[in-house]
Amino acid sequence: MAVKVLVLGARGGIAQHVTRFLKGNKGVELTLFSRNTSVLKDEAPGAAVIEGDVLRNTDLDTAIKGQYIVYANLAGQIDKMAAAIVKSMEAAGVKRLIFITSLGIYKEIPGKFGQWNEIRIRSLPIATKKALRN
């Protein structure tokens, strides 16, 4: 049985890499979700394609229902999007979420949170090296 994977924000740069990786895997049933789906059908033939907005509950609920993993690659109102995704996943009984964001990579976050975020971003290469050694 194939693992059902939903890619939210499927036109995003990182999401396109994920899609290319997953589309060749026979053990994956791929669903691509984006506000603009015009090019997605060509990107991953055989994938289900859903046009919608993560902040529209009916769109999100339709996309998440029956999935095994939700991969979110989004920008914008991340806090509202994350809350909507988790709410929809809980209602559908979906337990696995991979959430990718580039928040703060351009030092655009002000205040103490921005400072904390910059420290975390700088520590990523160190954490990655440690993880690879284990």
From TrEMBL:
This is Putative NAD(P)-binding protein. It comes from Dyadobacter jiangsuensis. Residues 9-131 form the NAD(P)-binding domain. The lineage of its organism: Bacteria, Pseudomonadati, Bacteroidota, Cytophagia, Cytophagales. One of its GO terms (molecular function) is riboflavin reductase (NADPH) activity. SUPFAM superfamilies: NAD(P)-binding Rossmann-fold domains. Gene3D superfamilies: NAD(P)-binding Rossmann-like Domain. It comes from the Bacteria.
